[in-house]
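Section: Multi-chain targets

For targets with more than one molecule, the full set of components is provided together so that the structure can be written out for the assembly as a whole rather than chain by chain. Components appear in the order listed by the source. The example entry contains two components.
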Amino acid sequence: MNTGLTLLILAGAVLALIFAGYLAKKVFKFSEGTDRMKEISKAVREGANAYLKRQYRGVAIVFAVLFVIFLVLALCGLMNIYTPFALVLGGLFSALAGFFGMKIATAANARTANAAQSSLNQGLKVAFSSGAVMGLVVVGLGLLYVVLWYLFLDLVLGLEIRDIANAMLTFGIGASTMALFARVGGGIFTKAADVGADLVGKVEAGIPEDDPRNPAVIADNVGDNVGDVAGMGADLYESYVGSIISACALAVAAGLGVDGFLVPLLLAAVGIVASIIGTFFVRTGEKTEQKVLLSALRRGTYISAVIVAVAAFFVIWGILGMEHIGLYGAVLCGLIAGNVIGYYTEYSTSDTYKPTRDLAETSKTGPATIIIGGLSLGMNSTLVPVIVVGVAVIASFLLAGGEIFNFAATMNMGLYGIALAAVGMLSTLGITLATDAYGPVADNAGGIAEMAGLDESVRERTDALDSLGNTTAATGKGFAIGSAALTALALIASFTDTVTQLDPSFKVAELSLMNPSILIGLFVGAVLPFVFAAMTMSSVGRAAQKIVVEVRRQFREIAGLMEGTGKPDYASCVDICTRSAQKEMVKPAILAIVAPILVGIILGPQGVVGLLAGATACGFILAIMMSNSGGAWDNAKKYIEAGNLGGKGSENHKAAVVGDTVGDPFKDTSGPSINILIKLLSMVAIVFASIIVNVNIL
Amino acid sequence: MNTGLTLLILAGAVLALIFAGYLAKKVFKFSEGTDRMKEISKAVREGANAYLKRQYRGVAIVFAVLFVIFLVLALCGLMNIYTPFALVLGGLFSALAGFFGMKIATAANARTANAAQSSLNQGLKVAFSSGAVMGLVVVGLGLLYVVLWYLFLDLVLGLEIRDIANAMLTFGIGASTMALFARVGGGIFTKAADVGADLVGKVEAGIPEDDPRNPAVIADNVGDNVGDVAGMGADLYESYVGSIISACALAVAAGLGVDGFLVPLLLAAVGIVASIIGTFFVRTGEKTEQKVLLSALRRGTYISAVIVAVAAFFVIWGILGMEHIGLYGAVLCGLIAGNVIGYYTEYSTSDTYKPTRDLAETSKTGPATIIIGGLSLGMNSTLVPVIVVGVAVIASFLLAGGEIFNFAATMNMGLYGIALAAVGMLSTLGITLATDAYGPVADNAGGIAEMAGLDESVRERTDALDSLGNTTAATGKGFAIGSAALTALALIASFTDTVTQLDPSFKVAELSLMNPSILIGLFVGAVLPFVFAAMTMSSVGRAAQKIVVEVRRQFREIAGLMEGTGKPDYASCVDICTRSAQKEMVKPAILAIVAPILVGIILGPQGVVGLLAGATACGFILAIMMSNSGGAWDNAKKYIEAGNLGGKGSENHKAAVVGDTVGDPFKDTSGPSINILIKLLSMVAIVFASIIVNVNIL
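Its structure, encoded as tokens over all components, is:
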């Protein structure tokens, strides 16, 4: 063990948490504004808490059951003895990150609206700071989790580095399981509430969005937090932890020992410092143009990226020496690829660019053509990210020392390079997640400004902040998908390494794609994202239907609701969403957990490799398509609402609303859920590797 | 050479053509009915001829250019010297099949309508016979093409069987290129005409479907023939030829020599005889219920399948002996898998089953929910076909003698088994294609009955025949996709065999999925179907837009058109569709041809294997999804039109129309085009194998 380096890493993790606490304190110092604002904010907060409470209760049961199963398996020698505990601890850390993120987000919404009364910059500051709290808590807890385990296994138990790496590889399962709940459940919640609120409120009752008379309005606002803050946070927390531990394991497999093991951890620590520095550069003036605001945020992420790009050189050089400096190139590949995919996502979905403007035009010939146009836009937009990831993977493999034509002998270094690219991509997560988690806060602030009847100028500022949030959400989604794909690839590589250790006759170099067990594994893997997406889409439909029924009931039974004299029962809508979300995620969860084990038992470990590769390739593409189609429909609608092509209420607008409604589950439920699927499949395969290797039918 | 067997095979091919001629003569003996019917039928025929003429002109240019390129490459030693000639001859044979199919289909439409005046059975007889002509011409010409080449290379040139097999493997390129034009171009034509005719006719002018006042109505009817007859025929012709030649090549690779080479040919010949026998069992009474009619058609296909199932045993046993009887199991696997996928497609899309009925229910909450429902239905429906193909592939590999854990030593036999499964699936193509090509004839007959103002009872009968056609179209589409996937897999296996011969250092058993060049090839391959689908969907949109403009112009400029006194200019709409189809298919065609070569040059042959596997897996799934979503939307609309859920004109119906319009390019353009993509990619890879092996950047 290199004590100095380990302490440095630990310090980085702790620093992130301390700085997050400092920022949170600053946010809490701002006033929540008028009583009405406090009241609304409180309702959202209570709804979010109710959701979290119920979710954590459900999660606790699942984790308890899994813990027992894992423990039995571990005692039977089919699993590492630490895994059951890592499951619980990992889930706990992820839940903590989600809890803090939600807490700050629901505290910051009214404060952002109120701060926007004094100036745009103040509003941005509050919203962004709360986002930064989320970002830093995620990376801080993520890194802390990994480094604490390392210290325990090394210092307390005195294990060899190879054993540490193997054990720790399974330690992402807690984060993965938690992410499944947060992202899939959250995704179903948020869109059920959104669609349900719109269908009755906007369409049937004819009241505007965010109208306090709508009983589902609070659920809708809660949903923004549940889906975009807690869900996105858990998703990236999983990627962060997953990419780090798989890089650690692959470092050891590549023969780089403790030094190689520490590199990804140190890169993460460097990224934390860079992210913190970056936050200081996010500020703006009074101009509400998107371009100005966007560059304010981007300044922060750019500066962080540059810092990491410089510091990573010294990390690799200092620890592994000049002979392995190619690994530095791998880190850069990841860093660059993440940003390119993020920006390309923005290009594909923002109404300042051609694709979305052209899409808005297709509304002229009705809903069918805008649906076809949006699907085709989404499909088209998958090519560039695939090429970007492809180039990053090949380049990082080669730079790290892997050779295509001497694969068997060089693959370990090359695969380590791919894992480091994932770590590089995620190193600045502290600040990229901040720009992302900022979005729902601004969105909520807009809702509160509307409901509380604040001045038009305030609403204008919160609108500007909100619309910026939509852009960063697009970038963030692209980034989340890209990092999920790279992380999944690193995990697949780690899985093959695990299997090789369990069964020396298993040769990674001989995992021939033409072997039917691999080929069919690939087919089965490729179909999973489609089935998963279908499941989550119909879940949203069913859950939204329940909300529609409930809102209709309230309008019918609560006297004076429409006139504003009766008080709607917000809590019941939140409750319905929560329960639906919990119930609806059972089937997709079972699919994700059972598929790799079942395929492993039938087709063997090589079939599982096929499955994982197929699911990652197809899932990556489908997730991009669904996210981008959805984002583009959303912005095409907003583009029309801004007064183009006939504006609000026109036939074109009606067509665009259809597109947007289809896009809702696309971009906020099914698309992002696929990120979880592809990582969870790999993680499950790793955790159950012993069973997959030892129990075989064919 | 086994002269007796070869003559038998030749006789089978010739028999198919003779019997097709006999059936055609019988069809032509029927009367075309009234002058009005003759007139309409003539307009459709002229439109179809105009389309074919222009398409063949365009195709001729492309083939001429390709011929020159191929010849140069062949003279440089980068290609087999026979390939350029096979390209031309293969294209010619495929074009001939398309020509005869269109000729009989456009001759049978009015005759079917007229025959339906005397009885339902008469109507079915004419329509089905014309379908059988198409089916038998396709298999007859396909088999003739292969056997003639074999005779030439063996008898005339006296080549060794290994050289014959290698040379012939590239001989599918003509059929593939032709299929690209027929399927992609035809798909764009038919949906541009359909959508364009509906948008102005039904929606704007408020005239019913198939109304002779609509200037695009003839183009629409031509489109049915162009897309569903010529397109489907060329698609399956390609699969048929592709599966046979790849099975021949793999037989030789497996060391089974001439005997193994002749097995797939003989199976095809047996299938022809079985198909012919099957046609005699297709007849019905006066009951117009779908179930009765369907069982009339099914009786024919079932009987053919049973005959093949029995005869195949003797083929394998007689030629290869009891030691290779496992190959018989492989043939059965394909035969069964094709039927299961076909029926499952019907289950997913027919309104007699739950999925489509549930989908119709979602129309209650508007267009957005029916779109989400249909997409989710399509995605869900991909799982079963993937599992069916997966089981068929594994089972045929194992039955043939391949071993998962002794892959390197046994793979050749196993892969030959997979190819034989494809041949088995396609062996009864003569009759399965008949039930499929029958559909557009019945559809046209209905249109003619409508336009000619025939009696209500006749219209009822043609409606019954038409609705049966929709069901068989669904089954046929499933079958086409399933066989395309199996054929593509056989072609991929053949590609690896080709590369191994060109470069002995290339080891199929070491095509490790973890090698980044393969992995990234896989990603790139997986993205191609999405991009291809996006391209073809937007093509339909653009072409339909042009039809809309033209139809609007005619309604505006031609006096008395709406009143029925002016005569619409049908030809101009046909011409616009034809030109658009030609123009719009350039980009997708380039994508399909350039991608494997480019990836080969950058990532080497192993990257191409990844690409082909990724494209086949993802394309198979996406094609099923798009076909089934589209089919279900279509039938959900028809279900409502039949008087359910408010019936025609209700809000629910309007929502369902949106679904159907989205579904049109899904099921008739993009979905089926993907079949072509996955086979063409493999065929291009095989033809350009020398370049892929010898020219490398990485």
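Chain A has one domain: 3-694.
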